[in-house]
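pinging the channel bc i need a second pair of eyes. not urgent but kinda urgent?? the chain im working w is below, pasted from the shared doc
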Amino acid sequence: MTKTVVVVGAGLAGIHVAQQLADLGMRVHLIEKEATVGGLATHLGKVFPTDDCALCLDACKELHDDKHRRCQYRSLLGTQKGLTLHSLTDVRSIKKNGGKFSVSLRTQPRFISPDRCVVCLECINVCDVEVPDERNLGRSKRKAIYRPVPQGVPLIPVIDIESCTKCGKCVDVCGVDAIDLEQKPKNRTINADAVIIATGVEELAPSMLPGYAYGVCEDVLTQRELARLLDTTGPTNGSVLTASMKPVESVTMILCAGSRDLNAVEYCSQACCTYSLKHAIMLRNFGINVTICYMDLRVPLHSQHYLTLARDLGVRFVRGKPDQVTVQGDSPVTIVEDTESRKRIEIESDLVVLASPLVSLSSEKKEFTVTLDEYGFFSRQGSRERIYACGTSTGPTDIPNSVAEANSVALQVYLDLQGGA
């Protein structure tokens, strides 16, 4: 009898574990609260250690002879046998009934039927409503009917009903009657043999961290926001510009901006050093001067080449945690004590970029709290029978480790369920 697995979260780990289990013949329901899959990775351009497109990563080199690439932008999530994607869907409850789980879901309306839409995008073309695009720092506009990720999965648009005026132009232009502005949320329950949590992480908003001028100066950004500036699909088409649209000549990066801090987040977010180095290299390739302020550098072996290359390209490293970021004139100024020279210095730059902590998204759901540690992550040792976790839901890590853990969990789930058949 075919076993059913519910995977909560369609970031890279959730996608990989779902696809692996479907390939192994299981019935998989992949649950994603956003309109498109990919999670935090959709905000990135290139990812380490291969400099690939963020969602174009090997699912499993061993299975595919190191030649097969599963780009999630063009993946088979919508058509893969045994795998059903539920976007815009939240988990309302997870209850165990005997040896099975009853997973209650609530799906918010997309207002566009995936069964009818042919992705002609005429509805977007006729929409008159434009609002700031939150994905792109508000520095570009999007329509009330839009695609959050241009090449995302699902490919069809979604309607931001709060911005929509319901003028009816999109309804009139749709030749396949795919748009229904009166759609309502839908509830359903799935009976599953196992549940996998892959809810991922997000950047902690630096506005919660005093002293960095985030939210005060528009040229103080997070690493995710810098990634959007560096991305050719971002608000500046890949040009690195200040908020006033001036070309950037210098950037100061602050590592551990809130991490390893008893007054903020105590743990190390692990991936920050590496993606900061990746961005520093990209900036240097534009001819932009980069200074990195750090306490110490924690770069995994598979990404050591980034550190070597950054030094070779002339990235300046200042060992010391900045006291504060101030604004002088039009520019942010980083004040830091260089612990090697024992001098207090002020670094003026066009942009200041914060490597803010990666915090758990799992703690948002009360259904999960009984299995979370003090930081909101799933404890591998404390997980309940047939409730599994993978990727950054078990703690901050980089993409290679997250995908590797997803593959490992897929095998473990398969073996456990087959053994209990």
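so Residues 132 and 141 are 5 Å apart (CA to CA). and The helical segments are 12-23, 61-64, 122-126, 169-173, 223-230, 272-285, 304-312, 399-419. — does that match what u expected or am i reading it wrong
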